[in-house]
Design brief:
Blueprint lengths: L16 H16 L6 H26 L7 H17 L4 H25 L4 H20 L10 H8 L8 H18 L2 H11 L1 H6 L4 H27 L10 H11 L11 H20 L6 H16 L10 H20 L9 E5 L6 H17 L2 E4 L7 H14 L3 E4 L4 H13 L4 E4 L10 E4 L3 H16 L3 E7 L5 H17 L3 E8 L4 H14 L3 E6 L5 H11 L4 E5 L2 H9 L3 E6 L2 H17 L8 E3 L5 E5 L2 E3 L4 E3 L10
Parallel strand pairs: 1-2, 1-3, 3-4, 4-5, 5-13, 6-7, 6-8, 8-9, 9-10
Antiparallel strand pairs: 10-14, 11-12, 12-13
Helix pairs in contact: 1-12, 1-14, 2-7, 2-8, 2-10, 2-11, 2-12, 2-16, 3-4, 3-5, 3-10, 4-5, 4-10, 6-10, 7-8, 8-10, 11-12, 13-14, 15-23, 16-17, 18-19, 20-21
Amino acid sequence: MRCCGRGGAEPVPERRVLPLLLLLEIALFALLADSFLSLQNGLEIGRATAELGLLALGMTLVMTAGGIDLSVGAVMGLTAVLLGDLHAHGVPLLLACAAALVFGALVGLCNGVLIALAQVPPLVVTLATMALARGVAEAWTGGYAVYSGFAPSFLQFGQGYWFGFLPPQLLVLAAAAAAGWLLLHRAPFGRRLVAIGFSVEGARYAGVPVRRCLLGVYAISGAAAALAGILYVSHLGQAKADAGTGYELLAVTIVALGGTPISGGRGTVPGTLLSLLTIAVLQNGLLLSGQPTELASILLGVLLVGAVLLEGRAKPRLAGARVLVPAAVLGGLAFLAWSRDGGAGSGQPLVALMPKNKSDPYFVSCRAGAEAAAGELGVELLWDGPNDTDAARQNEIVEGWITRGVDVIAVSVENAPAISTVLRKARERGIPVLTWDADAEPDARDFFINQATPEGIGHALADEAGRVLGGAGSFAIVTASLTAANQNAWIEHIRARLAERWSDLRIAVIRPSDGLRDRALTETRNILRAYPEVRLIMTIAAAAVPGSAEAVKQEGSEVKVIGLSVPSLCRSYVHAGIIDSIILWNTVDLGYLTVQAAVALHDGRLRAGSTALAAGRLGSIEVRGADVLLGAPFRFDASNIDQFDF
């Protein structure tokens, strides 16, 4: 067996690719983004990576021993829900946090028992635990409950600063890194993990307590995931079941890129930290330089493959590629950044506009209007956001915009409590803030671009249901996210309208679809089978409406579909008689009005007390308090849907 060396882990071959790549990233992004080298940005990078860093540190120990823990993201989410529920039931926060840590360690210990004692492969065990933990969290919250209302002192830990500049999470990550380094590189425990990873049987013959070590390392991984869950809750101010989704694969990638092989027998905490920093700088630099966020995933995959091929494993004749490959990657990125830089540095106002989900056709059509307004007004438009409904990702992007110093921020809010703190921070830094499509907490923005009043939308939907059902019967609602402020407001007004005008109508069930066609199809199919009394499906997410219609078509049902969507997605189903009608505002106009209002707010033409806004081709738009009103919703049906192409 190879010598483990002093302190617990076999010395890792010198890694040249990552340090070189990190230096190239720093040099490139320093040129592309003026604020990249600021102390504030460096500290915010640390804040943004704290949760993932904790998972990666625990994963480093596990992978050193030749294992893997794919349950860490789900355990993070489950412990966040546990913390939120305990707090909601009056348990003091300190005690609730301690309980969450113990619970996470116990889940990890259960993994260790199955792996060490029952000798089930780690991949199988932790995949099962991942599914179980995520399922329990979903069942616990009903798939939609969000815990909030945490004490300001707790939120300050995740959202504030110590000494006026230092994010507390950074200190937690530093302490965890120091502990991980001591365990792996200076303690007998680390030497034992290396021996186990190299050869379980060899370690056992050498007198290593294999079972005890495996139990310990998986318990540590579970505790690290629980600590990440606590930091997540304090950072976003909410606890929800989907916290940590996808983090397990990112953690594995970071650890492998840092030099700890999945096969085990070697481990490096410094390598993991260097990998974490390299990826964080890449993501942050792309954001500050205005590049599409999905580019980070592409480059991450390229870098992972390149690092594995080039770091100490390639033939000597490929040694020159150690420099050329990362240089080529960064050179390509530099060219892309230069070619996309557009009006950067031109002195034009920079309007940063964020949808809930930039791949949703609803928001794609909004973007067309936003770009038209930006072209008319001669301003630069920065359009970016998550590729799915992700409140945490929205926070990260806004943090980057604050650091970059954009002129106006406009956000379609996924979760109001989660994003309001960072929007307040933007306003404190002198950046005007708008919300559009879905609102934040009132003190977190200057104005809300309201596509239609929640009352108007709710009443229109309820009246459509009453018309289609003839005033009596049961219907189901398929929404996007049961935490979305705007959709919840619509549902409240639907209920109020039913009580006021349609007392013989009943809502049988409300199910989320994540705004996805495929999930809406599945949810609608389940509703049709479980609730035979339902005669109407009301789907209130643009991309989900055709999914509901397709489910009705496949089931051969006579149930009708109505909802809120865009004509281009629903036209064929309307003509087929499956969708009776949809209502919506003009989404292109919504994007157009948002940019018009953003520029007016920046120029001082839109201010507190304004009652009207001159909005280009839309003419004079009513401003009611802090609401800029686009207008009443419009009904699309077979008689008029072909007249619209958005």
